[in-house]
Amino acid sequence: MKVYDLIGIGFGPSNIALAITLQEKKQAGYNIESFFIEKQPSFAWHANMMLNNAHMQVSFLKDLATMRNPSSHFTFINYLHQKNRLQDFINLKTFFPSRHEFNDYLSWAASHFDHCCAYGEEVIEILPEKRGEETVLLRIRSRDSEQIMHERLARNLVISIGGQPRIPDSFLSLKGDPRVFHSSSYLQEIKQFPSANRIAVVGGGQSAAEIFMDLHDRFQTTQVDLIMRARSIKPSDDSPFVNEIFNADFTDFVFNSSEQDRAEILNDFWHTNYAAPDLVLIEQIFNVLYRQKVSGSERHRFLRRHEVRQALSLQEGIQFVLHDMNTHCERTETYEAVVLATGYHRDHHKSLLAPLTPYFGDFTVDRQYRLCSTPNFKPAVFLQGACESSHGLSDTLLSVTAVRTNEIAQALMNNSNQTSVMQAKRGISTAFA
């Protein structure tokens, strides 16, 4: 069985950026053979949130390569040049392309690596391959859409699988009810409700705000309740000094801080990334609600300081027991569809790595995003997008992606050199039967 230097799980922006970095390192004489496994049947980036008029919240300069190598073939600028749109984009006078265009850029970049990515396979198990007391390789087992199992061996692993939908406790009992769905499947699911009279959107962030506006434009008469526990919708703070927390060198500052200081930093800047829509979007929602006041007709409602205490599945719809946190009163409301714009968990890697848990302890990572392991575990296992608590708020964003992949690539090369030295000392062949 062939042994890859690196196998990557997931082929979204982070691992595409890593593939680009490794390819450019190869041109400089460093040969790390990589392969990626993606469970989606083809490349797609937040496909169910490709809403009309949705735009990026991150500058196009923080693409897959520019912050690491501005002369790379894979910059957003070169993508525009290749598509004959560079002059027209300049005339837009914006740093924030549409989400549709950035998705096309990512798809263009991903297409360069079709030869080393298996789409439509879901990784179900990662097992240790031992020689004596040492784990020297990893066996990655995946299953394709036809239920055929595939096995590959790797010297190193990088996990970049994004987040898993966060479902509030009050909705856990409704799992499987098609009338309740997470924002991650919004466009796919909302098609099932072309004539809904009442829809609830639960959440207070960018996705909740975008979905509220999409429902307003999509339907002419449907009533939409936007429900959140916060007192108001607060805009994201993208002022220059605050934005410095997304600079690559700020990662060093966060990582080198004490655990208590890290927690304080995350808390201080939480609203730069969470529960903080764009100001323009907030103004659009306010305008919709104001026009209702002018016309005297209440189609939509903004239920701030409301908490869903209970959600019940009834024949006529999903019934909420809503608690008004201002008056401490409760009332019931029934909806034909419920959209949960409630964010994501980013700890699914622990489930994937369950057979390797004895080697990783509490899943602490080092500065280069490598999981700290016991001495008898030789493969390097890296995490992308799951290190916010140790590396800062930029970890789940595009902001540091290009720079992070360079750090991981350097760590991979160092690990490869160390492995080669150890094998030479012990007279072990690099081949694996």
Automatic annotation (TrEMBL):
<dbReference type="GO" id="GO:0004497">
    <property type="term" value="F:monooxygenase activity"/>
</dbReference>
<dbReference type="GO" id="GO:0006879">
    <property type="term" value="P:intracellular iron ion homeostasis"/>
</dbReference>
<protein>
    <submittedName>
        <fullName>L-ornithine N5-oxygenase</fullName>
    </submittedName>
</protein>
<keyword id="KW-0521">NADP</keyword>
<keyword id="KW-0285">Flavoprotein</keyword>
<dbReference type="Pfam" id="PF13434">
    <property type="entry name" value="Lys_Orn_oxgnase"/>
</dbReference>
<comment type="similarity">
    <text>Belongs to the lysine N(6)-hydroxylase/L-ornithine N(5)-oxygenase family.</text>
</comment>
<keyword id="KW-0503">Monooxygenase</keyword>
<dbReference type="InterPro" id="IPR025700">
    <property type="entry name" value="Lys/Orn_oxygenase"/>
</dbReference>
<keyword id="KW-0274">FAD</keyword>
<dbReference type="InterPro" id="IPR036188">
    <property type="entry name" value="FAD/NAD-bd_sf"/>
</dbReference>
<keyword id="KW-0560">Oxidoreductase</keyword>
<comment type="pathway">
    <text>Siderophore biosynthesis.</text>
</comment>
